[in-house]
């Protein structure tokens, strides 16, 4: 008997300001609030699309995302095509988000897949990518995956 077939479920994220993060993720990922609580000691938001949960935000932390500690490296969200990545990049620029690598880039040298790499309001590293169409730009990290070092 082998292991059951697995697929990723939703991602839970600790945030410092639920309202700010909810607005950011809704705008960038084009998701809806599927459920929430605004009770002082139990603030959260469930975000998703077409009734499917994608991200949960939990207001229960202080400070900024620690990239120098073991744990989450980054989260990646796939979109159907590179035009969607460019739309996300435009939204990120409108929001003043920190965008890395000067915009949309391939996942590595010679790769067609790629996307935009950025930080959320708490410094969490994120990526929105498409399976193809990013090969018009130069890979920013020679000899290594783009998503590995940012």
From TrEMBL:
The protein's UniProt keywords, in alphabetical order, are:
Metal-binding
Q: Which residues form the VOC domain?
A: 7-131
Q: Which residues form the signal peptide?
A: none
Name the SUPFAM superfamilies on file. Answer: Glyoxalase/Bleomycin resistance protein/Dihydroxybiphenyl dioxygenase
Short name of any one Pfam family annotated for the protein: Glyoxalase
Q: Which PANTHER family does the UniProt record give?
A: METHYLMALONYL-COA EPIMERASE, METHYLMALONYL-COA EPIMERASE, MITOCHONDRIAL
What's the protein called, per UniProt? VOC family protein
Q: Which species is this record about?
A: Allokutzneria oryzae
């Amino acid at each position: 008997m082998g292991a059951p077939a697995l697929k990723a479920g939703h991602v839970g994220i600790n945030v410092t300001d639920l309202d700010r993060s909810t607005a950011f993720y809704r705008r960038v990922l084009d998701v809806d609030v599927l459920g929430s609580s605004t009770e002082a000691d139990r603030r959260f938001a469930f975000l998703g699309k077409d009734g499917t949960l994608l991200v949960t935000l939990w207001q229960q932390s202080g400070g900024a995302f620690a990239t120098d500690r073991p744990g989450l490296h980054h989260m990646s969200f796939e979109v159907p095509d590179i035009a969607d990545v460019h739309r996300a990049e435009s939204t990120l620029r409108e929001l003043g988000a920190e965008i890395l690598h000067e915009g949309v880039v391939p996942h590595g040298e010679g790769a067609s897949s790629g996307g935009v790499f950025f930080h959320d309001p708490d410094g969490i590293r994120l990526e929105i990518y498409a399976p193809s169409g990013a090969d018009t730009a130069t890979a920013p990290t020679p000899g290594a995956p783009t998503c590995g070092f940012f």
